[in-house]
Each structure stands twice: as structure tokens, then as C-alpha cells.
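Internal tracking record. Fields below are filled automatically when a chain is submitted to the structure queue. Please do not edit lines marked as system-generated. If the sequence contains nonstandard residues, flag them in the REMARKS field before resubmitting.
Queue: standard
Priority: normal
Entity type: single polypeptide chain
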Amino acid sequence: QVQLVESGGGSVRPGGSLRLSCVASGRTFSGYVMGWFRQAPGKEREFVSAIRWDGGRTYYADSVKGRFTISRDDAKNTVTLQMNSLKPEDTAVYYCAAGLTWSLNEYRGQGTQVTVSS
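SYSTEM-GENERATED OUTPUT FOLLOWS
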């Protein structure tokens, strides 16, 4: 059974940092695009970031560019999202996802809550 399990969420003050991790199991994800979505209460799901199977290309939403960094370690089946300079508008449930294309539509985790508040 394929699983994506996120960790690292929590509460932080504006300007703070969090590091989200996603561990994949049940198959190898080399060859897959992996990334993150988020969904805030009352809002639609939003793409955050994605990374190609070889780590050679990354994409970021304009809203997080320059503040978030995505990376992956295929040896550990892990994708990480380093989030710096967090803002209240970054508050959301963050979901790890994977797919054969940039749509990341094949596998998704259960999500981890990130709250940015003073």
C-alpha cells in the first residue's frame, strides 16, 4: 500500500520557519514528480511547490517564491519543504503529493497543519 506521511507542521509566529517532511512508502518514487499543495479554511486547494524526479527542476507558487525551498532524497523516499519568513496567509493544511506529471495527481498524504499567528 502506497502511503505519503507528512510531518513537521505546527504553530509559529510571523517571520518564523518550519520544515515539512514527507516520507513515502509502498513503492519507489524515483521517476515521480513530488510536491506540496495547501488548503486554507474556506479556500480552494493551492499548489505550493514541486520537484522533478532528478531534482533538476523545481516550481514554486508566486506567493512562496523566495521563502520556501523544496528538496528530495530518493534514497530515503523523502521530500522536504523548508518554509522561511512565514506569513499569516501561509496558514493552511499542507499536503504532500506525487505523480508521474507535474499535476501530482496520483498519490496524496493526509496533511499537516501549519498555523502562522502572533
